[in-house]
Amino acid sequence: MKLNTTRVWLGGIAGGVVWNAWGFFIQMRQRPFYEAAQKQGLFLKEPRYPFFVGEWILLVFVLSILLAYLYAWSRATAGAGLKTALKIGMIVGFCAGVPGNFAQAVWSPVSRMLPLGWMLEMWAGAILAAVVAGFLYKDKA
After folding, report:
1. How many structural domains is the chain composed of?
2. Does 141 reside within a domain?
3. With 90 as the cut, is the pLDDT of residue 48 above it?
């Protein structure tokens, strides 16, 4: 089968919307922890990069499109469907969210709730994005 790049991009963009919405949900719950870390001087009050939020949103879309490609490529060997999308999302999300945030929880002086939230944002977000991309992907006829 030939890869349907239009459906990959559609799934990737839709997955990016879902992942960014999930990230917004997590970040709103973490606001008190950010404020406390800023008051303690552990976090900057302003980002070093003035367009950080926009750049982060764009990066999540790029990750989601890459997840959509991984799902589409994996269908030939792992099969189409939810199970494959979940596996792809769990693997990529684990790699993106767990090791670095585990290290932050161990070594950073900020509340462990921040790295926990960051880990959940990446891991669950990748799973959600992969499932959305998998749902929307259809092979070319």
Report:
1. 1
2. no
3. yes
